[in-house]
Write a structure and sequence with these properties.
The chain starts with a helix and ends in a 22-residue tail after the last helix. With 312 residues, it is α/β, with parallel strands linked by helices. The chain has a five-stranded parallel beta sheet, with helices on both faces. The chain is built from twelve helices and seven strands. Helix 1 packs across helix 3, helix 1 crosses helix 12 and helix 4 crosses helix 12. Helix 6 links the parallel strand 2 and strand 3.
Length: 312
C-alpha cells in the first residue's frame, strides 16, 4: 500500500512538472482494495482492471519502473509507451490491462474465464470496476452469462461512491450493489474496502469457492478516493467534510494502528519500507527520464496485423 501511495504522490509532482501528460486517475485512498484482492490470487489467475489501475498493476507485481516509463510514454513502459496511464498491460503476469471505457473490461474478463473453463484450467479471472460501471449494460450482460455458465469470474466493484462527479444515490435507485448482484444468482458480499485484512479475507473466501466450481462471486468493496476523479477534475461536487471523514479511515493508517495494538514494531518497519520505496521510485523516475521515445518510423507498428499467406 505504501508503494502505491508514494508512487502516485510522485506522479502528482511529475504531472505538475509536465513530465507526465494526458489523463491520470489516482488511486490514493483505495490501496487496500488492490492489495487485499491480489493477495488472494495466484500468478496463474488473470486480472482485468479499470482506467484507475496504477494500484492494480503495482499490486500485481508490475515494477514501478515499467509503470513509470509507461506514464512517460517511453518504449520501456509495460505497454511499450503506447498505453499511458489508462492502459497498463503485462501478459506475462496475466494482467490484461486497464481500460478507458467504463465497464469495458467486464466482457473481456468473461472471455478469459470462459477460456480457462473450456481448457479445464483451475484458474480465476478477477475484474475490477467502479460503481459507475454498474449502470452499464456490459455489467448486466456479463453478470448474466457468468452466472448462467458458472464462470470462475470474481467481480470486484470498487464502490467509491462517485461515478466521476455523480454520487451513487443520484444514478442508482438501489444503492446496495451486493444485494442487486445476488439477483443474478451469484454469491455477493459488501466489504469494508478501507480494511486491507477484511478485503483479503473476503477475496480469499470467494476465490476458494470459485475453484470448487461454485460459479462467479461479487464483492462490493466500499472505499473512497481521496483525490479528484482525475487531474483535470476541480472536485467541486464533494463536501470537504465528507472527504476528511473518509481520510480519517486511511487504509494505511488503519493497518498501522492495528499492528501497533498487536505490539508489532510498526514505526521501524515503516521507516525501512519508506526508504526502500523512495529509492525504488527515484530509480523509476530516473530510468523513465532516460528511456527512449518511440521512433516516428515505427508508429504504425501494431496498428494493423501483418499480412499473412492465405490458408488453402
Amino acid at each position: 500500500m505504501l508503494r502505491i501511495r508514494r508512487f502516485e504522490e510522485r506522479c502528482v509532482e511529475l504531472y505538475s512538472a509536465t513530465k507526465i501528460r494526458g489523463f491520470v486517475h489516482l488511486y490514493i485512498g483505495e490501496e487496500a482494495v488492490a492489495v487485499g484482492v491480489n493477495e488472494a490470487l495466484t500468478p496463474e489467475d488473470a486480472v482485468v482492471a479499470t482506467y484507475r489501475e496504477h494500484g492494480h498493476a503495482l499490486a500485481r507485481g508490475i515494477t514501478a519502473e515499467a509503470v513509470m516509463a509507461e506514464m512517460y510514454g517511453r518504449t520501456t513502459g509495460c505497454s511499450g509507451g503506447r498505453g499511458g496511464s489508462m492502459h497498463l498491460f503485462d501478459a506475462s503476469r496475466r494482467f490484461y490491462g486497464g481500460n478507458a471505457i467504463v465497464a469495458g473490461g467486464l466482457p473481456l474478463a468473461a472471455g478469459l474465464a470462459l477460456a480457462d473453463r473450456m481448457r479445464d484450467l483451475n484458474r480465476v479471472t478477477c475484474c475490477f470496476f467502479g460503481d459507475g460501471a454498474f449502470a452499464e449494460g456490459e455489467f448486466h450482460e456479463t453478470a448474466n452469462l457468468a452466472a448462467l455458465w458458472k464462470l470462475p469470474l470474481l467481480f470486484v466493484c470498487e464502490n467509491n461512491l462517485y461515478a466521476m462527479g455523480t454520487a451513487l444515490e443520484r444514478h442508482q435507485a438501489q444503492t446496495d450493489l451486493a444485494m442487486r448482484a445476488t439477483s443474478y444468482g451469484m454469491v455477493a458480499w459488501s466489504v469494508d474496502g478501507m480494511d486491507v485484512e477484511a478485503v483479503e479475507q473476503a477475496a480469499r473466501r470467494a476465490v476458494e469457492g470459485m475453484r470448487t466450481g461454485t460459479g462467479p462471486h461479487f464483492l462490493e468493496l466500499r472505499t473512497y478516493r481521496f483525490r479528484a476523479h482525475s487531474m483535470y477534475d476541480p472536485d467541486r461536487y464533494r463536501d470537504k467534510a465528507e472527504v476528511e471523514r473518509w481520510k480519517s479511515r486511511d487504509p494505511i493508517t488503519l493497518l498501522m494502528d492495528r499492528m501497533r495494538e498487536s505490539g508489532a514494531p510498526v514505526d521501524k518497519d515503516v521507516a525501512r519500507i519508506e526508504r526502500r520505496m523512495t529509492a525504488e521510485i527515484d530509480h523509476a523516475v530516473e530510468a523513465a527520464d532516460q528511456a527512449p521515445q518511440e521512433p516516428v518510423e515505427t508508429l504504425l507498428r501494431h496498428v494493423t496485423s501483418a499480412a499473412t499467406e492465405a490458408v488453402t
